[in-house]
Amino acid sequence: MMEINKFVDELPHKLKIEVSLYIYEERYRNIIFFQGKSPSFISWLCPLLQPQIFGDKQYIYLEGDEISTICFMISGNAQFVLPAFENVGYIDIKIGNVFG
């Protein structure tokens, strides 16, 4: 993907935006955060996103963690849970939501 980003960076600005929107459509299409954002913003931010995969029952953040990243839910299931109460879920994170 790094080579594609270098190639796209060399294109004229307008073409760069169009190509980026096409390449990263799967990343931004269903994310609520990107709705209403300019094509320039989307094409700037999408190449910076790094996919992460978390296992079943794996914590993404723990209480007290310093959170320095933002996550976009593109597939799967996640919840905010209460570890002190046997991981009872109290907020569902749906596909398209942002957290972190």
Describe the secondary structure blueprint for this structure.
Elements: H1 2-9, H2 13-23, H3 25-28, H4 39-45, E1 71-72, E2 78-82, E3 88-93, E4 98-99
Antiparallel strand pairs: 1-4, 2-3
What's the total count of β strands? 4
Radius of gyration: 17 Å
Strand content: 15-25%
Cα shape: elongated
Query: Cα distance, first to last residue?
Result: 25 Å
Taking pLDDT < 50 over at least 5 consecutive residues as the criterion, the unreliable ranges are: none
Please state how the strands of the largest beta sheet are arranged side by side: 1-4
Q: What is the chain-wise order of helices and strands?
A: HHHHEEEE
Query: How many DSSP H or I helices?
Result: 4
Structural class: alpha+beta
The major sheet is characterized as: 2 strands, antiparallel
Averaged pLDDT, please? 89
User: Helical residue percent?
Assistant: 25-40%
Written overview of the protein:
- With 100 residues, the chain is of the alpha+beta class.
- The chain has four helices and four strands, in the order ααααββββ.
- It has helices at residues 2-9, 13-23, 25-28, 39-45, and strands at 71-72, 78-82, 88-93, 98-99.
- The chain has a two-stranded antiparallel sheet with strand order 1-4. A two-stranded antiparallel ribbon has the order 2-3.
- The chain is elongated, with a radius of gyration of 17 Å.
- The two termini are 25 Å apart.
Supply the key terms.
two-stranded antiparallel sheet; single chain; 100 residues; 30% helix; 4 helices; alpha+beta
